[in-house]
């Protein structure tokens, strides 16, 4: 209390406010992760990036449609172990370009095979596809899609399931309540000893 005035307690965010604030923040986080991956790549050695599996070079293209490009090793071999997965966001660069150099394009991994990686592009790069290329992984689309789907479900209101009673409490729409009867704890794993059962309880 200062000068005889009391500080007002701020009201909690409503569910709709939370969703409307968080959705653009997820977009910002995704862009920041991509930007960070690209800028971090500028300070890395190409050989070490390939060893970590976040970069693969020596590709050539095979057009699979308007927006799908299939990348194969110039040696025609099975691709070595890597960390690329479907829905990963990748950037395409000339094989000999520095790690921090501008990308020819940005896309999402569509399909993985032993000897090729297919990437979906919004805009197919017009230049630079006739020489050896490389792909650099910068983010994973699935993570952001799942978080956005969760926000959409929240905005619609959760009517069923274990979270249906919890969400109104979290957003200050309802006071928490105590169960009217004791709930007996029964562990899923019947092989737990007494100390583990007490710990979980």
TrEMBL record:
InterPro entries: P-loop_NTPase, SMUBP-2_HCS1_1B. Residues 22-124 form the Helicase SMUBP-2/HCS1 1B domain. One of its GO terms (molecular function) is RNA binding. This is Helicase SMUBP-2/HCS1 1B domain-containing protein. It comes from Fagus sylvatica (Beechnut).
């Amino acid at each position: 209390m200062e000068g005889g005035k009391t500080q007002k307690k701020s009201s909690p965010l409503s569910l709709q406010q939370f969703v409307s604030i968080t959705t653009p923040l997820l977009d910002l986080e995704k862009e920041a992760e991509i930007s960070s991956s690209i800028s971090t790549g500028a300070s890395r050695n190409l050989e070490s990036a390939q060893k970590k599996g976040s970069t693969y070079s020596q590709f050539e293209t095979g057009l699979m449609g308007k927006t799908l490009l299939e990348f194969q090793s110039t040696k025609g071999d099975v691709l070595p172990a890597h960390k690329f997965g479907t829905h990963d966001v990748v950037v395409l660069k000339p094989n000999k370009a520095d790690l921090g150099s501008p990308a020819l394009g940005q896309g999402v991994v569509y399909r993985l095979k032993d000897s090729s990686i297919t990437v979906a592009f919004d805009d197919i790069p017009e230049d630079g596809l006739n020489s050896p290329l490389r792909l650099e992984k910068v983010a994973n689309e699935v993570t952001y899609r799942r978080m956005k789907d969760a926000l959409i479900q929240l905005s619609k209101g959760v009517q069923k399931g274990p979270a249906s009673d919890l969400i109104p409490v979290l957003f200050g729409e309802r006071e928490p309540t105590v169960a009217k009867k004791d709930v007996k704890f029964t562990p899923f794993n019947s092989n737990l000893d007494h100390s583990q059962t007490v710990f979980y309880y």
